Amino acid sequence: MPKIIALAGKGGVGKTTISALLIKYLTERGMTPILAVDADANANLNELLGLQVNTTIGQIRKELKGDMPPNMTRDQYMEMKVHQSLVEASGFDLMAMGQPDGPGCYCAANQHLAMTMDHLADNYQYIVVDNEAGMEHLSRMNLRDIDYLIVVSDPSARGIMTAKRIAELTGPLGVKIKKKCLIVNRVPEPASAELLAKIKETVESTDLPLGGLLPASNELVAQEIAGKSYLKLEAEVPVLQKAFAIFDTFLE
User: Fold this and answer.
1) Spatial CA neighbour of 23 closest among 39, 40, 35, 8
2) Which residue in 96, 106, 141, 239 could disulfide with 38, CB within 3.0 to 4.6 Å?
3) How far apart, in Å, do the first and last CA atoms of the chain sit?
4) 79 closest CA partner among 130, 40, 33, 118
5) How far apart, in whole angstroms, are the C-alpha atoms of residue 232 and residue 9?
6) Interval 65-90: pLDDT, tens
7) How many domains are contained in the chain?
8) Among candidates 37, 4, 8, which has minimal Cα distance to 132?
9) DSSP labels for 159-208?
10) Domain CobQ/CobB/MinD/ParA nucleotide binding, which positions (predicted)?
11) What region, left, alpha or beta, does residue 130 occupy, with left being phi > 0 and alpha being psi -120 to 50 degrees?
12) Does the model's pTM come out above 0.70?
């Protein structure tokens, strides 16, 4: 069975950035093959990885509401289309979930997706899920047992408060998590005493230990503006070194 790593946090905190750095980490450590799932409706993980997405799961779900090709069940069609939607790269495949469900019931389509994910998961050592603020996609894909949950916050009271709520919500959602941590992203150096106190308060009042602090990075900004893949970042980039140190400890 693959190990599942999910990322969560409010919008704009850098979940996709950390997802891309995590995929770079796993590929460089030989912890492959990996399935990277971009579960954000505003999908842009592919851009940070230098890849192009042509078909999303949202588009496939809509197709499942129409007529099927002759001599093919909906399960078979879903499985075929999901495999076709995968973007193949060195050491990992990428799947984009696309837009959320629109009008009408997608319950049956999501059930077909869950069954397809059961078959697909066996092909990978790790599944990395870059989530929206909520974690509904985990249940749609039948990923209810999470090995590692990384909750991401920015250095703001609202971001850290959202991180705390996510930590508290995983139980009621029926998601089983073996290990979790908080990563605070884009932290100014040095971090203010007020920010550190807020982080400490959150860590001590939940079961969400602190994984680490990542600094704001001019290198990441420059890489994104230039349209270059984060996979090509040089090893000496400070934020990359700090991210890898966090992953070394958390994923041991």
Assistant:
1) 35
2) 96
3) 17
4) 118
5) 26
6) 778 888 888 888 888 998 999 999 99
7) 1
8) 8
9) HHHHHHHHHHHTTTTT-EEEEEEEEEEEE-SSPPHHHHHHHHHHHHHSS-
10) 4-225
11) beta
12) yes
Phi, psi (deg, nearest 5) at residue 71: 65, 30
User: Which is it for the CA torsion 241, 245, 248, 251, positive or negative?
Assistant: negative
The confidence score (pLDDT) of residue 133 equals 64
34 three-class SS: strand
- Residue ranges making up the domain that contains 177: 3-250
Instruction: Measure Cα distances from 156 to 132, 182, 191 in Å.
Output: 18, 14, 12
Q: How far apart are CA 188 and CA 203, in angstroms?
A: 20
The mean of the pLDDT values for the chain is 87
Q: What is the pLDDT of residues 104-144, one digit of tens each?
A: 555 656 676 777 788 888 899 999 999 876 666 566 666 67
Find, among 120, 121, 130, 125, the residue nearest to 30 by Cα.
Answer: 125
pLDDT score of 20 more than 90 = yes
The CATH number covering residue 237 comes to 3.40.50.300
CA distance 51 to 44: 10
